Amino acid sequence: MSQRPYNFSAGPAALPEEVLHQAAAEMLDWHGSGMGVMEMSHRGREFMSIAEAAEADLRELLAVPANFRILFMQGGGLAENAIVPMNLSRGEQADFVITGSWSQKSAKEALRYCDAKVIASNAEGGHLTMPDPAGWALRPGARYVHVCTNETIHGVEFQALPDLKALGSDAALVIDCSSHILSRTIDWSKVGLAFAGAQKNIGPAGVTIVIVREDLLGHALAICPSAFDYKTVADNASMYNTPPTYGIYIAGLVFQWVKRQGGVAEMERRAVEKAELLYGYLDGEGAGCYVNRIDPACRSRMNVPFQLRDESRNEAFLAGAKARGLLQLKGHKSVGGMRASIYNAMPLAGVQALVAYLREFANAPL
Ligand SMILES: *Cc1c(COP(=O)(O)O)cnc(C)c1O
Q1: What is the pLDDT of residue 244?
Q2: Which residue of 22, 95, 115, 170 is 20 to 30 Å from 81, comparing CA positions?
């Protein structure tokens, strides 16, 4: 059993311990090549095999159809906020659904490249509910509709993807799934493009995964840097510029780990189990001491923000958690309170340890 503390960081976040051990064992000599992965040419046989396996495993895990391309890019989620409009908007309309900080940032950045418009928002009341797709003011001319499917800071998550076709729209759905990719299946029939920074649920910061339908390629604005033109990246199998090789390698190890655990279906089963345990305690026995105000219908399975009813005890709470090996529970500064991020790499035992501490702290005399 692990002696390491449980790390509830929102990102960069904990990785499966098995993966870290494997990476450590292969650090100086990958598979008898005499080289560490960081020291290999990205065009050499060894690294090409690592990248090809990572892509194939991700395609299998998420059941990505053949008419979608998988790209390994750099720049993170925030760069995608510019790269997506540069590639997909053609300088025309793009619609945004605001559900929290991340979608807000996306809409703001897109304004630099296209006619970006907020067509639905849950800002009123503080991002505690999900705007019902039936009420979205979709524009008929929009090239795409952007949603953040899991708001890492505000802790709201789409439990199903909106069906734009059924809503009468031909726009491509763009999903920022950075903080819950590989924790649930994706219905690709509803999606045009998905992107995810790796550092939440996949691997180290520095790799960004883009999964894009082929017919959306080839329409980049003239100002788009070549290295960020999806078609250029796709035509060069993500090797137009030097890709983040070590990050891709670790992502590949994580994909293999997810496969060994039973795939995305098993990750989802575990995510539900962990989330139910934690929310169940907060709403039930712990409700006198803690509060989570988010509508239960759209609570995130990955990021669980909560507050102490007596916020003067925040520092004591965090110090006690740290002393018990429960790390990085402090909430994002824009929301305050606490946040437990319980991504794929967080074992059930970690959430059980957290709940045991929540109970102990709630029952401790002041
Ligand atoms: C973390 C995160 C990002 C930002 O990623 P960077 O790598 O910092 O650019 C974008 N979207 C979501 C939903 C995130 O959780």
Answers
A1: 97
A2: 170
